[in-house]
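F.,

This is the one I mentioned.
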C-alpha cells in the first residue's frame, strides 16, 4: 500500500498548527489547532480538547498565529 496517495496535502496545509478555529456546533468558542496527523482518522487535534476532529466539524476563524518559516536574506558572494 502506498501511503503517499492517502494523504490529503491540501487539507493538511489548510489546517496548520496554530490556526484558530471554532466548532460548528459551538459557535463563538475558539480553539487552536495543535497538530494535524494525516495517518489518524479524524486527523485534527485541538489544543485543550481530548478528542480529534474532522475538518467538516470546524470553521477556520484566523490563520494569524500560524507559524511559518521566515526567509532571511544572506549576502551572496559573487
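My design for it:
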Amino acid at each position: 500500500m502506498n501511503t503517499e496517495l492517502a494523504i490529503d496535502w491540501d487539507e493538511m496545509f489548510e489546517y496548520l498548527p496554530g490556526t484558530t478555529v471554532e466548532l460548528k456546533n459551538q459557535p463563538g468558542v475558539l480553539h487552536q489547532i495543535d497538530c494535524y496527523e494525516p495517518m489518524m482518522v479524524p486527523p485534527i487535534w485541538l489544543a485543550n480538547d481530548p478528542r480529534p476532529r474532522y475538518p467538516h466539524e470546524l470553521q477556520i476563524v484566523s490563520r494569524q498565529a500560524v507559524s511559518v518559516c521566515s526567509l532571511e536574506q544572506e549576502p551572496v558572494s559573487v
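The chain has one domain: 3-62.

Talk soon.
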